[in-house]
Amino acid sequence: MSDPFDGLLRSYDERRRAELVAAYMAVEHAAEPVPEVRFAALREPALRRTVEEMLALGGRTLVRHEQTSWTSGYRDDVAAELAKDPECVPPVRERAVLTLVLIHSVAIPRAAGQLADDTWLSPHPTPLDELRRRTQLPVGELDSALRRLRLAGLVSQVKAGADDAGGFVPGPQFHRLTVAARRRLQEELILAAGPDSPLAAAIRARRRGREREQGESA
User: Fold this and answer.
1) Residues 10 and 74 in one domain
2) Which DSSP symbol is given to 126?
3) Which domain holds residue 51?
4) How many domains does the chain have?
5) Cα–Cα dist 81/105, whole Å
6) Cβ neighbours of 125 (radius 10 Å)
7) Angle at 183 between CA 182 and CA 185, to 5 degrees
8) Which residues belong to any copy of the DprA winged helix domain (predicted)?
9) 8 A C-beta contact, residue 44 and residue 52
10) E-assigned strands of 66-218?
11) Among residues 80, 104, 124, which one ends one of the domains?
12) Average predicted confidence (pLDDT) for the chain
């Protein structure tokens, strides 16, 4: 079986090929973003472009995290196509539970000025009791949804302090969102948390404008 990266790696010597493959494996499989200082193929722009080309073969792209770390995620166009496939979309119950975690761990603290606008990681866990109060799911179904979300890396269970029961926060998969994906998710969260707010109205108006532009250019 031929190596799918042969064409991209052929011009490099053995050491460089090993560095490129190591960087590719790290950004694809590490749960957290990897520091570029550990990988020459992420530090050097020319090699990093080759890693990007390797990822592109599978519809993936490099995602920068806090300036000096990297992970990978689906390209925006590929993600849009996957979102149309019901097999790639979590069940409604899991999406509802995830939305509650995002609202209470991210949206509310951000509105209070406790989180930066562009972050989806949070030190403000949503307590399990809060999730039980806010959802109509039976306890067993809620626990099952949380378990599947944890396994998918979409939520993490944490403790807020030594005497705190803690709760749930967005998981490591949120590191893998591109800039455009983070922006879309932020808009969706605003629409879910405050559908009647002026900001939600502005988002809907902007989207209608984009749809009209796309229709006119088609």
Assistant:
1) yes
2) B
3) 6-80
4) 2
5) 28
6) 22
7) 65
8) 121-159
9) no
10) 69-74, 155-158, 167-170
11) 80
12) 89
The DSSP H or E segment spanning 147 is: helix 139-151
Same structural domain, 158 and 197: yes
pLDDT digits (tens, 9 = 90+) for 49-74: 999 999 999 999 999 988 899 999 99
Q: How far is CA 117 from the centre of its chain?
A: 15
Q: What is the DSSP string of 40-99?
A: HHHHSHHHHHHHHHHHHTTTEEEEEETTTEEEEEE-HHHHHHHHT-GGGS--HHHHHHHH
Cα–Cα dist 118/38, whole Å? 25
Q: For the domain that residue 66 is a member of, what is the CATH number?
A: 1.10.10
Residues 94 and 197 in one domain: yes
Taking the C-alpha atoms of residue 58 and residue 75, their distance in angstroms, rounded to an integer, is 9
Helices (H) and strands (E) in the chain, counts: 11, 5
- Does this model's pTM top 0.85? My answer is no
